[in-house]
Amino acid sequence: MGDLFNSILKPIEILVAWIMYGFHQVFTTLGLPAAAGITWALSIVGLVIVMRAAMIPLFVRQIKASRKMQMIQPELQKIQKKYKGKSDPESRQAMTQETMELYKKEGTNPLSSCLPILVQSPFFFGLFRVLNGLQDIATEKKDAIGPITKTVAAQAESASIFGAQLSDSFLRANNLSTQIVTVVLIVLMSATTFTTQRQLMTKNMPQSALDSPFAKQQKMLLYIFPIIFAVSGVNFPIGVLLYWFTTNVWSMTQQFYVIRRMPAPGSAAERAYHERLARKGKPIPGTVAATAVADGEGGSAEDAGPQSGQRTQPKSKKRAKKK
Predict the structure, then answer these.
(1) CA spacing 20 to 30 A to 175: which of 7, 33, 60, 272?
(2) Any alpha helices (H) in 72-143, and if so which ranges?
(3) Given its phi and psi angles, is residue 33 left (phi above 0), alpha (psi -120 to 50 degrees) or beta?
(4) Residue ranges making up the domain that contains 198
(5) pLDDT for 151-193, tens place per residue?
């Protein structure tokens, strides 16, 4: 099992190493010191940008899937009430079948909203293994990972930011600086995760969805995830914590933009969006005015012709010829 896991992660490790090394070369060309922690930290940020930019189509799918899951909650509750108290195999199977038919009809399922996390996880583990292996590569206990040779690994392994090595973790720290940087990054990582999830729940969910079991489950995760990050974060190298914090900031910003421009129907974000459009004098989506504009029926005052209020009488062809 371990060999299979390693064989799957090996290509991803090499890809992560090449992306980091490529950004490192760019920054050193721009004049940053090759062995400086800031250069390698920016290389990790560059890795996040490349990876998250490539995942934008998946993020759009996730937003659509999450929105559909929110909107079908009343229908799911009806199915659950229909089979409430029935624990026999036939009823359970019928409930599952009706639920799956609803998912198929709406073109969504609970796993669709997890796609970005599932795709992102191998890169997370790939970076973890690259940073964890720097010392062994530098001391020739481990083979090079792509362009991360002995010399490059020694350089990256000794790189530090605010007095903390990027390859070090809280539990392996031998100085106070590393522990402080680790704690700060864990707090920032937990705070950005909490803010992103809370933003989704408070602004982009209709009231009917907020009262559903799905929303209650999401609310629980809102408080559980920061605790999980706080407990597990002490084992992660600082470079991995920096990666996770950066990807959280990307998610938070991207989600803010999507909620602001494409809010879920019936949500607080949609009401705020309509208020902004009204203040700017723009038609609100779904209204008669918006439909007319979309169909090309709306015209400017200049195109509307005379505005005197007197009806212009039509002229027949014969009368036009006499003239």
Answers:
(1) 33
(2) 73-82, 89-106, 115-132, 134-138
(3) beta
(4) 2-72+108-272
(5) 999 888 888 888 888 888 888 777 888 889 999 999 998 888 8
- Residue 101 CA to residue 95 CA, distance in Å, equals 10
* The two three-digit tokens of residue 11, written as one number: 């290509």
Predicted structure pTM score? 0.71
- 């940008």: which residue's tokens? 49
Same domain flag for 65 and 85: no
Distance of CA 155 to the CA centre of its chain: 32
Specify if 299 maps to a domain: no
Radius of gyration of the chain measured on its C-alpha atoms = 28
CA atoms within 13 A on the CB side of 89: 0
Which tens digit of pLDDT belongs to each residue from 97-116?
888 888 888 777 766 666 66
- Give the Å distances, CA to CA, from 63 to 113, 123, 140, 253: 7, 21, 45, 14
How far are the Cα atoms of 96, 102, 277, 298 from residue 294, in angstroms, in the given order?
41, 31, 15, 8
Q: How far apart are CA 164 and CA 17, in angstroms?
A: 21
In a domain, 290, yes or no: no
259 phi/psi in degrees, rounded to 5: -65, -40
Number of domains in the chain: 2
In terms of DSSP H, where are the helices of 30-55? 37-54
